[in-house]
Amino acid sequence: MKKSLFVLAIAAAAVGTVHAQANDTLAKIKSAGKVVIGTRDSSAPLAYTTGDGKYTGYHVEICNRIVDAVKADLKLPNLATEYTLVTSQNRIPLVINGTVDLECGSTTNNATRQNQVGFAPTTYVTNVRIAVKASSGITSIAQLNGKKVATTTGTTSVQLLRKHERATGVNFEEVFGKDHADSFLLLDTGRADAFVMDDNILAGNIVNAKNPADFKIVGETLSEEPIAIMYRKEDPGFKKVVDDAVKAMMKSGEIDKIYAKWFMGPIPPRNVSVNMPMTASLKNAIANPNDKPAEEYAKK
Q1: Residues 94-115: pLDDT tens digits?
Q2: Which of 11, 217, 219, 285 has the fewest CB atoms within 10 Å, counting from its CB?
Q3: pLDDT tens digits, one per residue of 114-131
Q4: Which CA distances in Å does 245 have to 66, 200, 205, 239, 251?
Q5: 44 and 107 in one domain?
């Protein structure tokens, strides 16, 4: 009996060791000689491509500053940075399985996701709303009855819409885009009457549209949600490096400058501004760094 218990203890220790190694992102990065950033192609101004194979945006810039902190921690100044395109559907699995080290896109930090992955302190707070054609006459959720509403596969926006108190008795048809650009295209081409998504993503797609004046963001706020950089769960060493880097940017005021660059100034490729001043909620999150899930924001 004692022998069996001893064998089980050894096996459990071995499993624990393997688990720890699997979540030792700093060791993985050092061995690979690179940091892999997972990012989005149409989540402007947080993370997007300008069409030349390069990724840019508010969260991409923040992640590049985090990579500098990783280089300093590992004493590897020549560490490479590699970008991998992720989608709403595969972003969490690719973080969990180690394909990407940092997910720098437009991911909501919520309680369900916290069971699977870890989040850095909140760096953006979004309001989920709806975008429509300016000529549609739609100004509220109640007017979506009988309409087609687009959203991106793998996101929670339509679920929020259905749960909203003002959506009671409103029946609409869901249509899905494979990514945010595809969802916006459904609206642009008339295959959808509205696109429900984070306000910053809606604004980013509108300013980069051929005719931005053809669209507007309307209706009630469906939800206020914290957006944050995502990494593997139960990896305290990597979490400390990432979180400390984010907190340092918040304390120094650097993150305010990065925000102003991407949300208030002209951004590529059209060099126009989304013109979204920092909200009181985001100012509070920067003054009091935290990784609270969306459910905490819903309690306000």
Answers
A1: 999 999 999 999 999 999 999 9
A2: 11
A3: 999 999 999 999 999 999
A4: 6, 24, 29, 10, 10
A5: yes
